[in-house]
Write the structure tokens for this entry.
Amino acid sequence: MIGLWPVFRRELSGYFTTPVALVFIVIFLFLSGIFTFQIGKFFEAGQADLSAFFTFHPWLYLFLIPAVSMRLWAEERKTGTIELLLTLPISLPAAVLGKYLAAWAFTGIALLLTFPVWITVNYLGQPDNGVILAGYLGSLLMAGAFLAIGSCISATTKSQVIAFIISVVVCLLFMLAGLKEVQGFVSGWLPLEAVQVVGGFSFLTRFESVAKGVLDLRDIVFFVSIIATFVAATAVVVNMKKAE
Amino acid sequence: MISIRNITKRYGGGSASILAVDGVSLEVGAGEVLGFLGPNGAGKSTTMKMVTGFLTPTSGTAVVCGRDVVEDPVGVKSAIGYLPEGAPNYPDMTARSFLDFIARVRGLSGAEKKRKVDAVVERVHIGGVLRQPIETLSKGFKRRVGLAQAMLHDPPVLILDEPTDGLDPNQKHEVRHVIRAMADRGDSGRAVVLSTHILEEVEAICTRAVIIAKGRVLVDGTPAQLRAMSKYHNAVSVTLVPPINAAGEPVNLAGELATMKWVAEVEDQGVRHVPVSPAGPGGPRQSCTLLAKGGRPLLADVTSLAKSRGWTIETVSVEAGRLDDVFRELTQKEHVRAGGAA
């Protein structure tokens, strides 16, 4: 994986040399505040945990993560820098992984900056900080899964707008796969086992327990496999589409 | 240093496939500056993209510094400095951080990285703009940053896709100057390949020219050899003033010159009137251009003919041949042939 580190470093610092980082982080913090305190009724609930905070993360990520992932490859293809990047002495997996990890690290930074919420809850009560840590880890993993999907879709197009819209739709499908409505829809024409498989892909169902602080190994394996699959798919798509 | 072996690229499959490069083979040695010429869509860029490992050849391969691009793409990439078409760069980065990034990817670090970056900055003269984001630079400076990126690690092989395209004449001149300086570093024995469709560029910097069209190599020779293929090679242009002979009669210049032994064709520019100017007296001038049969030198014959007829020659010039003429003839002939076949 020679070259992964420089690519990672360039990509990550790229967020901070443009207003992208500032806008994203401010909006992310603002919205997570609204969700937690206004809609999630954090104070009214009177419980010393962050479930009100974590419950809305899938919905926050649904729109914010595709905004980060849309430029990953679409921009390189549009400006032609993909040719520069892929004729440097680095392997394709290193380039794909370096860029992906940078985007993930960036969302991780945004997530870390929500620490005032954690301070607040510790000031007001005695929460189980292990549960909160598990919530953060689960949230980071889910962000990674959204990013991997978005990265793969970004590689299919030169247009960041198209990458954004398709990513939102695909991420929405993954999120809602477990809902009664979706299950009812697919059960009409799929066998029961297949319906359960579709339901198993539901980010929302899996994250429900994570928000309550239960980070099951199966959920970790699920999110990590989604990440691995879509990052590998990104490399395949980049290789296929680079000539266009 | 570069050995391209029967390299072929076919886009798409089935009946809709396009044969972009059709079995190109070339050897480029150390110290050579090879100009890759051809009309747009001839396959120049595709060939370069395969040699640099960006595209995978459909068949055939290229060997650069002993490494096969199909088997060891990363090895080949580390031996090459490559400027892709349009000199793409990351517009948000400053020139300095961009070059630092390239240096790091190329495995340089610490003092060596600093030394190499400083050296290349010096060589392409971008010291004054290092702290500026690349998007704020003029086109000429952007191109120089692109060249710096390609030359940073002192590669034995330099591949430049249309390095001067879209620049103004001054910027073109500067970029050519940099490329020539790069090639002239004789101690290291570098091989440079550059594509262009500007023929003066080939004359200015290349030691060898290859013309390709429809994905195939048409001609491979020195610029002088190419020029010798022009029908204007050794052509002589003559201007008489005044266009009368010693007896005061009008001269049938074209007719008389056409009788000469080694003249293939006479292009008669006729008589035109020149106003009085500091450069000379006004009045009628008569001009002709003689195309030489087999490129034979004609000047001696022309001057002796003029002496025997009592003509006053105002100017006479010998042409070396016109590259764009050769280029047009070769590539259009190919075009007509292909069109006729289809």
